[in-house]
């Protein structure tokens, strides 16, 4: 695999250079080359390359990064960290595109640390392991999800809920405290280095492109289903929203032997939900008659909608002691009238992805039941169009970048 490489590009010590048209960026100064110029640079000699890698870090990496809030992604050369004893080096094969990636590259949450290499639904193959790695060997098929580190000493970590650790290190646009606070670079790149504690084993037989979205979307719905007992045959599960998260919730619910009802504002999704994904019923949330007829029938609801929406009518669908789980994050507060939960003793919970253990269990379950996401596999040079389409929810149901099959040619 060939990379363009230049020592100066990777120097973390240089000031951010002038970039025509670029506002002063909150850059950490790691990669500073404007892509078009970087691509014109002559390839460094092997000697220089090795010297620079020694000085600056580990393996040279080629990714696609957003440089500013336009969110436009383009090729980007950087280096991964020098592998530690417990690190696994992974050649990225596929990486899913999550709504979070879109939010971060466009800085909707105000926390982007440009250049941002997105991607946290990663499936790849191990190419190297540190001396202390016990669970993986070169050639293993592995996954990496939403986070690649945690403090390992807090209450949450002690209980196996690393995803709720205050020191969690996100896979993309996270703060790698153990490495001088550098911004983490995600799976839109040919190689990634991750501590084995946060690497997942992908069971044999799962199609790798369809597995990638399980690493975030899949575990985000699987984890709360397990925690709240929404995994028992015969129970009735409601799934609100039929997108990247919702469609895998339907699949898990059916694999658990549950009755699954999809709840959506779009009547047009009925056929897809019932005939293609195997949902038992379909409710149009804007139809008061349908909603009334389904009142008090559900044991639990997974609400995946990230736009503002009324939740009281959804809570009315729950049986007494039923559980609502919110996994979408609308940017305006939802309204929770207390009458909607007090009389029936109903619960409302949130959920963010899942622990390492949950994620591994989810993959095993998916392997056993042949569950994969519905995906549209794209090449990296289509990624900007994919982001535009994702913003309009124009995807069934997840874009997955064929990283290994397209990054080489992009270079
Ligand atoms: Zn995600
Ligand atoms: Zn912790």
Automatic annotation (TrEMBL):
It catalyses: (E)-4-coumaroyl alcohol + NADP(+) = (E)-4-coumaraldehyde + NADPH + H(+); (E)-coniferol + NADP(+) = (E)-coniferaldehyde + NADPH + H(+); (E)-cinnamyl alcohol + NADP(+) = (E)-cinnamaldehyde + NADPH + H(+); (E)-caffeyl alcohol + NADP(+) = (E)-caffeyl aldehyde + NADPH + H(+). GO terms for biological process: lignin biosynthetic process. Pfam families: ADH_N, ADH_zinc_N. Keywords: Lignin biosynthesis, Metal-binding, NADP, Oxidoreductase, Zinc. InterPro entries: ADH-like_C (IPR013149), ADH-like_N (IPR013154), ADH_Zn_CS (IPR002328), CAD-like (IPR047109), ER (IPR020843), GroES-like_sf (IPR011032), NAD(P)-bd_dom_sf (IPR036291). PROSITE patterns: ADH_ZINC. The lineage of its organism: Eukaryota, Viridiplantae, Streptophyta, Embryophyta, Tracheophyta. Its EC number is 1.1.1.195. This is Probable cinnamyl alcohol dehydrogenase. SUPFAM superfamilies: GroES-like, NAD(P)-binding Rossmann-fold domains. Belongs to the zinc-containing alcohol dehydrogenase family. The keyword Manganese does not apply. It comes from Panicum hallii var. hallii. Gene3D superfamilies: Medium-chain alcohol dehydrogenases, catalytic domain (3.90.180.10), NAD(P)-binding Rossmann-like Domain (3.40.50.720). GO terms for molecular function: cinnamyl-alcohol dehydrogenase activity; zinc ion binding. Homodimer. The keyword NADP applies. Its cofactor is Zn(2+). Residues 71-401 form the Enoyl reductase (ER) domain.
């Amino acid at each position: 695999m060939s990379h363009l490489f230049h020592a100066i590009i990777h120097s973390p010590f240089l000031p951010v250079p002038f970039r025509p048209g670029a506002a002063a960026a909150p850059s950490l100064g790691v990669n500073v080359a404007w892509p078009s110029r970087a691509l014109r640079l002559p390839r460094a000699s092997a000697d220089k390359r090795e010297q620079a890698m020694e000085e600056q870090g580990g393996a040279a990496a080629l990714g696609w990064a957003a440089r500013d809030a336009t969110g436009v992604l383009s090729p980007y050369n950087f280096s991964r960290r020098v592998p530690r004893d417990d690190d696994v080096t992974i050649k990225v094969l596929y990486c899913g595109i999550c709504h979070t990636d879109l939010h971060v590259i466009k800085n909707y949450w105000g926390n982007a640390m440009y250049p941002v290499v997105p991607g946290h639904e990663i499936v790849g193959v191990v190419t190297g392991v540190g001396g202390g790695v016990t669970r993986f060997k070169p050639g293993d098929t592995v996954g990496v999800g939403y986070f690649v580190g945690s403090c390992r000493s807090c209450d949450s970590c002690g209980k196996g809920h690393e995803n709720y650790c205050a020191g969690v290190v996100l896979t993309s646009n996270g703060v790698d405290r153990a490495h001088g606070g550098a911004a983490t670079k995600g799976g839109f790149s040919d190689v990634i280095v991750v501590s084995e504690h946060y690497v997942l084993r992908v069971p044999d037989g799962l199609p790798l492109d369809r597995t990638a979205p399980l690493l975030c979307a899949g575990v985000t719905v699987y984890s709360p289903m397990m925690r709240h007992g929404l995994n028992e045959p015969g129970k009735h599960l409601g799934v609100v929203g039929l997108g990247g998260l919702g469609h895998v919730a339907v699949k898990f619910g059916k694999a658990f032997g549950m009755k699954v009802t999809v709840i959506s504002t779009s009547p047009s999704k009925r056929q897809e939900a019932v005939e293609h994904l195997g949902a038992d019923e379909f409710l149009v949330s804007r139809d008061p008659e349908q909603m009334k007829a389904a009142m008090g029938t559900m044991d639990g609801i997974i609400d995946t909608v990230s736009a503002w929406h009324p939740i009281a009518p959804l809570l009315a669908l729950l049986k007494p002691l039923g559980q609502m789980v919110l996994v979408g994050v609308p940017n305006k507060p939802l309204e929770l009238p207390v009458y909607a939960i007090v009389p029936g003793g109903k619960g409302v919970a949130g959920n963010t992805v899942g622990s390492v253990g949950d994620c591994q269990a989810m993959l095993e379950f998916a392997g056993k039941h042949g569950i994969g996401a519905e995906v549209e596999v794209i090449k990296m040079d289509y990624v900007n169009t994919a982001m535009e389409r994702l913003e309009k929810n124009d995807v069934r149901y997840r874009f997955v970048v064929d990283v290994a099959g397209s990054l080489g040619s992009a270079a």
